[in-house]
């Protein structure tokens, strides 16, 4: 417990120091200034019952969103309070219609947890995937408020399952129910005495991407850029990914490449423009197309660099092959379900061991992993040159996603069957 207290004491100080040179750290600090006054002002006259969902960042929000939307539909007389820990989630989704109130989560501490729960006074609390804050969880538990973990996933190397992990195991004991993504997670929790609280529900991301695909809306500028060419969509790329992909893009003018960097800061966009020889930015291309001023040079560019947020899940619809970034870095790949749901073959780098869906999709022949640029080019050329193989791989990816749907229904079914939101 001492190590956790030291961590929550040091963390804000480290962020404050980083804020001098890191814009996201500065947003983290500024977003929490006067946070309790803002929460009090927004909720002052709200007498309706409330549901509180907390997510770490954007990815976890997308994971929790199917549950949030279904709760809104099923319990329209309840207000939805959404909190984020990270600026990258809050700044992008602070006006999302699925929530009535969106806040940064104040840093974990006993007084902050008490004050936050006094102000919000939720009937139900949901934490998504891997956000665990001891004092918030403990205070929720002590008040007898139903506390659910949505789409949890656990690995043997985590602190919960180590000799020094008593504090972390206690955090898990505060949950009323732990809805987990896979059987190995359920088995790990059972081994530490939490089997009765654990429900194997699956991953709500499958429901999320299926909804996105089912409500797809076209993007005219993208359709114009792709024309009738084969298209490689590379999403959530880091520099390491682009350095593996750039030679293929620079030597294959017959293919259209859509590059969506994970970070769209100006320095990163310029880096992409340096690595890829024949580029145009999406906003420039779309504006010139609308104005009728699209030059031959712009029109002949074979690499479109996406310089805005929120389009990626739709971009994969246009892919012949999807490349998902992150696999050449330490943290691993980003969301491979977004392209798979459209029935697209998925290619990614060698670091994917933390992602069970990658291992499953590889086993079902819906995805291919590559270890370097040469293998990446060979795999993509092989798929493009073999239409039957391309189709089989894409169909396997799409079938994999469809077969794993239903986690949201299981979670909502539990809430309804146990009357967690009935007075």
Characteristic terms for this protein:
423 residues, seven-stranded parallel beta sheet, Rossmann fold, 21 helices, 2 domains
Structural overview:
With 423 residues, the chain is α/β, with parallel strands linked by helices. It folds into two domains: 21-202 and 406-417, Rossmann fold, CATH 3.40.50; 217-402, Rossmann fold, CATH 3.40.50. Helix content is 49%, strand content 15%. The protein contains 21 helices and 14 strands. The chain has helices spanning 2-18, 23-31, 35-43, 58-74, 87-93, 110-120, 134-142, 166-173, 183-191, 204-214, 220-226, 239-251, 266-275, 282-291, 296-300, 312-315, 337-340, 356-363, 373-385, 387-403, 407-417; strands at 50-55, 79-84, 101-104, 122-128, 147-152, 177-180, 198-200, 231-237, 256-261, 279-281, 303-305, 321-324, 346-348, 367-369. The strands form two sheets. A seven-stranded parallel β-sheet has the order 3-2-1-4-5-6-7, with helices on both faces. A seven-stranded parallel β-sheet has the order 10-11-9-8-12-13-14. Strand 2 (79-84), helix 5 (87-93) and strand 3 (101-104) form a beta-alpha-beta unit. Helix 1 packs across helix 2, helix 4 crosses helix 10 (204-214) and helix 11 crosses helix 14 (282-291). The longest helix has 17 residues, at 2-18. It is globular, with a radius of gyration of 23 Å. The two termini are 36 Å apart. The mean pLDDT is 94.
């Amino acid at each position: 417990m001492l190590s956790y207290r030291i961590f929550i004491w040091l963390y804000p100080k480290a962020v404050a120091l980083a804020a001098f040179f890191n814009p996201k750290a500065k947003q983290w600090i500024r977003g929490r200034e006067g946070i309790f006054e803002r929460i009090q002002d927004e909720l002052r006259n709200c007498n309706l019952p409330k549901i509180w969902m907390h997510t770490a960042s954007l990815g976890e929000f997308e994971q929790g969103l199917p549950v949030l939307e279904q709760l809104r539909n099923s319990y329209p007389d309840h207000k939805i309070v959404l909190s984020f820990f990270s600026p990258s989630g809050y700044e992008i989704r602070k006006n999302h219609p699925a929530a009535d109130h969106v806040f940064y989560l104040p840093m974990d501490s006993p007084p902050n947890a008490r004050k936050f729960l006094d102000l919000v006074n939720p009937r139900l609390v949901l934490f998504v995937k891997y956000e665990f804050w001891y004092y918030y969880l403990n205070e929720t538990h002590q008040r007898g408020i139903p506390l659910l973990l949505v789409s949890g996933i656990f690995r043997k190397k985590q602190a919960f399952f180590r000799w020094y992990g008593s504090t972390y195991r206690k955090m898990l004991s505060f949950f009323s129910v732990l809805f987990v993504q896979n059987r190995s997670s359920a088995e790990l929790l059972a081994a530490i005495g939490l089997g009765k609280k654990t429900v194997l529900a699956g991953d709500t991301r499958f429901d999320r991407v299926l909804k996105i695909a089912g409500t797809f809306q076209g993007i005219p500028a993208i359709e114009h850029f792709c024309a009738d060419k084969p298209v490689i969509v590379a999403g959530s790329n880091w520099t390491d990914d682009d350095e593996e992909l750039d030679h293929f893009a620079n030597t294959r003018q017959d293919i259209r490449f859509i590059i969506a960097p994970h970070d769209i800061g100006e320095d990163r966009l310029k880096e992409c423009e340096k690595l890829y020889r024949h580029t145009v930015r999406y906003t420039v291309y779309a504006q010139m197309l609308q104005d009728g001023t699209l030059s031959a040079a712009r029109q002949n560019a074979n690499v479109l660099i996406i310089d805005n947020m929120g389009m990626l899940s739709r971009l994969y619809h246009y892919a012949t092959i999807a490349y998902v970034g992150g696999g050449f870095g330490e943290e691993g790949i980003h969301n491979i379900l977004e392209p798979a749901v459209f029935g697209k073959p998925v290619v990614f780098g060698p670091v994917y061991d933390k992602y069970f869906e990658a291992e499953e999709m590889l086993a079902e022949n819906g995805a291919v992993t590559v270890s370097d640029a040469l293998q990446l080019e060979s795999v993509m050329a092989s798929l493009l040159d073999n239409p039957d193989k391309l189709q089989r791989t894409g169909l396997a990816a799409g079938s994999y996603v469809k077969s794993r749907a239903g986690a949201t229904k299981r979670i909502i079914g539990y809430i309804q069957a146990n009357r967690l939101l009935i007075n």
